[in-house]
Design goal:
- The chain has two helices and five strands; from the N terminus they run αβαββββ.
- By secondary structure, the protein is of the alpha+beta class.
- The strands form two sheets. The protein has a three-stranded antiparallel beta sheet, with no helix packed on it. A two-stranded parallel sheet has the order 1-2.
- Helix 1 crosses helix 2.
- The radius of gyration is 18 Å and the shape is elongated.
Length: 109
């Protein structure tokens, strides 16, 4: 295990605990007949490891009514904005130029 890995796993476990708390509250408020999955949108800049988050959530829900709930992830790109034309676009990769006007190096918004 590399140095710093423990902090990353703790971060995902903290997020998983918050997600569990949110899911329990939503279940109380909306009283669904069943809950099969939770879809999460992850920004590419979130620094969350989906597998570590899934593992933490499973560990926390193992002995609860939410034990069968699956986490599903939708990966969103970061939003970049052009300093010249003002266009905005999402991208999983860091673009080297604006897709609208071709200006170099759009900034992260």
């Amino acid at each position: 295990m590399e140095r710093g890995d423990e902090g990353g796993k703790v971060h995902e476990l903290t997020v998983a605990a918050s997600l569990l708390e949110w899911a329990e509250e939503q279940a109380r408020v909306h009283a669904p007949k069943s809950l099969k999955s939770i879809e999460l949108e992850l920004d590419s800049m979130s620094c969350l490891n989906p597998e570590a988050l899934r593992f933490g959530f499973r560990a926390l829900t193992a002995e609860t009514p939410l034990g069968e709930v699956e986490l599903e992830f939708v990966e969103l790109g970061a939003t970049y904005g052009c300093l010249f034309c003002g266009a905005r676009a999402r991208s999983l990769d860091s673009p080297s130029s604006c897709g609208s006007c071709g200006a170099p190096l759009p900034r992260l918004v």
